[in-house]
Specification:
Elements lengths: L4 H5 L11 H8 L12 H23 L5 H8 L2 H32 L4 H16 L2 H9 L1 H4 L2 E5 L5 E6 H4 L2 H27 L2 H9 L4 H31 L11 H12 L2 H30 L11 H23 L1
Antiparallel strand pairs: 1-2
Helix pairs in contact: 4-14, 5-6, 5-10, 5-13, 6-10, 7-10, 10-12, 11-12, 12-14, 13-14
Length: 333
């Protein structure tokens, strides 16, 4: 049996440092270990570079005279711009409500067992997703060139009542129709994806309880599908808000059109484009906040204890700061 030099030199009954129980305990004690934080030099360098770029951009915004912040202040809350923002919001609201109503019908047509309904819904979605929005808007704006009068009557038979197309569908009406039909094609796929995400066993259990089909959809399927529908639907609504700028081809006084008219008159292109940008950013931010709270409401069934909202976290932080500021005074008294 071979012995190492350390074991041979050790006296009988003695233990080495590696096998000493006291030394093993000291080595295993977490309090005795020296903790060295990891140093992420590349991350620090990237953060410094980003800060420098942001600071340089902010300095350019503040000092570059081309931005003409005085012109921006004059027009940001002007009556013309505010009215244009109101028109933009109206177009967005009409197209959102009508588009998602029609899209929901198309989604359930695609999920129907009827081959006719499925084919019609698929064909609608295919056509309206294939044609650019600006082409659809121009088409509806020139509908009177195709149909001079629109009427109600027996199919392929006599017409009982008719009206001139231009008087029935004005410029705003044509824009709403174009935006709605375009939006419905995308809304249909969003709703269909949310319905498919619901466990099929829910419908089987509802059918076993004798719940009518329409009530199953309204009370069981849609509330659960909303958790999958809302994130994509919110993104689509924000895209629609910005997409309303396309109606400038119809000479409708929405935000982008009015900005074009103003800078075409006074030549202040950059500050007026900045006015439009600021309004779009503000409206998009408000829609994002609304989307957050709507998603939070529909997530109650799956998340019993949702995380606190940013407003609640801010209130808690302020309360903690007030408590920390007053606690030394309390101890002294």
């Amino acid at each position: 049996m071979a012995l190492t030099a350390d074991s041979a030199a050790a006296p009988p009954g003695a233990t080495s440092a590696g096998t000493d129980p006291a030394s093993r305990t000291a080595q295993d004690d977490p309090a005795s270990l020296q903790v060295v934080p990891a140093r992420h030099y590349a991350r620090w360098a990237a953060a410094v570079a980003v800060i420098v770029l942001v600071a340089q951009f902010a300095h350019g915004l503040a000092t570059n005279p081309v931005w003409e912040w005085s012109v921006f202040r004059d027009y940001f809350l002007s009556e013309t711009i505010v009215q244009a923002v109101w028109v933009t919001l109206q177009l967005t609201a009409y197209a959102t409500v009508l588009g998602f109503l029609l899209g929901t019908v198309l989604a359930f047509m695609r999920l129907s067992r009827s081959p006719v309904l499925r084919t019609v819904a698929w064909s609608y979605i295919w056509i309206f997703r294939s044609i650019p929005m600006i082409v659809q808007l121009v088409f509806w704006f020139n509908l009177s060139a195709l149909y001079e009068r629109l009427g109600v009557g027996i199919p392929f038979g006599p017409v009982f009542w008719s009206v001139d197309s231009n008087s029935l569908i004005g410029t705003i009406g044509a824009a709403v129709i174009g935006l709605t039909l375009h939006q419905a094609a995308y809304a249909a796929e969003i709703v269909r994806g949310g319905v498919i995400a619901v466990d099929h066993g829910q419908l089987e259990a509802a059918a076993a309880l004798g719940i009518p089909r329409l009530r199953q959809i309204r009370r069981i399927v849609l509330p659960q599908a909303m958790r999958a529908i809302l994130p994509t639907a919110g993104n689509e609504i924000i895209g629609l808000l910005k997409g309303t700028s396309v109606v400038y081809v119809m000479a409708i006084g929405e935000l982008f059109y009015q900005v074009q008219v103003i800078y075409g008159r006074n030549g202040r292109v950059i500050p007026l484009l900045l006015v439009a940008t600021a309004w779009y950013v503000l409206l998009t931010s408000l829609l994002s906040v609304a989307q957050y709270y709507v998603e939070r409401r529909f997530a109650r069934g799956a998340d019993r204890t949702p995380p606190p909202t940013p407003l609640a976290r801010a209130r808690r932080f302020l309360a903690e700061q007030r408590l920390a500021a007053t606690s030394p005074l309390t101890e002294k008294t």
